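Tutorial handout. Part one gives the primary structure; part two gives the three-dimensional structure as tokens.
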Amino acid sequence: MEHRDPRIPRREDCVLRYVLERRAAEHPHRVFIKMPDGREFTYGALLDDARRMASGLAQLGVTQGDTVVVWMPNGVDIVRVWFAINLLGAVYVPINIAYRGNLLAHVIRNAAAKVLIARGDYIGRLNDIDTSALETVVCFGEAAPLNKPLAVKPASVLDGDPAALPPLQRPIEPWDLQSIIYTSGTTGPSKGVMSTYAHLYHMSGTQGFYMVTGEDRFMCNLPLFHVGGTVPIAGMMNRGGSVALVEAFSTNDFWPAVDATETTVVILLGVMARFVMTLPPSPDDRSHPLKKVIMIPLADDWKDFADRFGVTVWTLFNMTEISVPIVSEPNPNVLGSCGKIRRGVDIRLVDENDAEVPVGQVGELILRTDAPWALNSGYFREPEATAQAWRNGWFHTGDGFRNDEDGNYFFVDRMKDAIRRRGENISSFEVEAEIVAHPDIRECAVVPVPSTFSEDEVLAVVAPVPGRTLDPLELLRFLQPRMPHFMLPRYIRILDELPKTPTQKVQKHLLREAGLTSDTWDREAAGIKIKRQA
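Part two.
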């Protein structure tokens, strides 16, 4: 018998198979996906495609509960494959299209899947790694040469007979695994976050993304192996709305894609909003269908962005493991805030012993929800990491926050990115915010490097706005009146572009590993002394 706990969404409201079947029955000709090239895909057509592919997967031996690794770029094919996997009650495991070498071997081993579905030219990277449990590789497009004892099959093997789709062993439940999504790997080997249908429902739902309705068209411009790409698809499916699907974010293609797809809402993550602002002003800056921008994090110049493009702006805080616990009001007026706690979430800010810190002090954000299955179910096949994250009955985010008396929450830094210099704790996030205020700087990352004496020194790695040059000394003079003396970078390195993941997160671990390179400017070597301020 189906559960009746009102805190848990019903199967037909959150399990993708049942939601897709219901939407296709109610409005089979309604467009669910629109592409920038004008192609459209309806609910009915996507259900037909998913049934056909699910039947093909079943013929390959995929059964309910199995993991299936998907290694494909954004496009309608990966959506069809995702839906087909979930139609069988199997677990969708998308992986980063940039993975290779040890990182690729790690996720292939961890996922423990027998079937990999990939773009054909990616699979040559399997030659250099242990492919673990893999037996079959299904390729979209021409397959690269492979020297592994794997069965390599064309995508046509997924063209199965929908009438031959096997029955489920049992109904798919809200607490069943929908996906395993690997963390971005900015700090080391990725961990596979186990996400149930109920978790995805709460993450993409109307509490955190309250500004999105079924009348919107939500642009999916983040990779579908990332939660930022998953949320628009799942959220609009549950709302009966539609998505605009683009292969990747591009500054120059952003507004043409918005116009071509009639996008009304978009997430701009990291440096995306700043990149859009660097476009030359145009009389057409407000001539577009976009109405809502979810800016993560909220840029200091968000009001300029909103005024220039005629949009309403929100911000929020989320991770792959959680479900949007903090969200702002429209056009938030508290600078630097991520917003306030949404209904249904408990949050604490704690020290290293899980003791709560006073209001205004920095602590690690930990949380729990009042609904079962509304957060992750741990890390796949990593019980120690799961236990560490879930200690004392709360999920530990690893993020440092502070709050104020009005209930606003402010992200300070990843706890492991915090810098300690001569007795002072420094937030790399706060230093970065001051550096990118310089008009010639497009993006920045601040990392610790070893000090000659003890603790850390501050290294700022910056990329200038295209066409502009940057003088480290001039940047230092710009920063001096803006921050305490102990936060001022000793080292400045200038790159054309910072190394980033496909989700546009700066790979700080690469900058830390590179350390002090030959092109790094050292203010002390330049004879510049910074006096301690009172």
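Part three, for discussion. Residues 43-59 form the longest helix (17 residues). The chain is about 25% helix and 25% strand.
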